[in-house]
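ARCHIVE CARD
Drawer: 12
Card no.: 0347
Subject: one protein chain, sequence and derived structure
Cross-reference: see card 0346
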Amino acid sequence: MATTQDVSNGNFIRFNGELCQIIEWQHRTPGNLRAFYQAKMRRVKDGKSAENRFRSGETVEIVRVETRELQYLYEEGDAYICMDNDTYDQIPVQKHLFGEGAKFMKEGDTVIIAFEGDDTPISAEPPHTAIVEITYTEPGVKGDTATNTLKPATVETGATVFIPLFIDIGTKIKVDTRTGEYMERVK
């Protein structure tokens, strides 16, 4: 068993019988009170967030996970089908594990999946950036570029991104999948 000092952001712990991923882990020492650890966690089962305080030195069960790079193939129902490039096994991964970055994924993208012991996917991470093509956007008005104004655009995956006025339909752009923000134009 590990103690609270061994936990860091991104670790998986078993809390109240459920598997949780640590999103934020802070050590706090408020004035003349005892020190504690404040944790923001995400339950793996349903993706819901929870917060809890742990006493300093309290024992915590850290779960060991194995991460592998898989190739995203296609969407089926409430799961994304990913393939292991070594064994060619196709593994269904629940959509909620990918978060908001999934709306920028295209077939063939490499994703990072974390597995707990019995090959059950417990966490999924899409690529940090995606290159997508603009399929629809309103044309920019000439002379309307004095400020850093953004307009909505629909990309090939169906997601909406706010882009600068000078970008037109058919242009490829780079998007940060973690925030959904426009990064740059791709040549």
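Annotation on reverse: The chain has three domains: 2-63, 65-125, 129-186. The radius of gyration is 21 Å.
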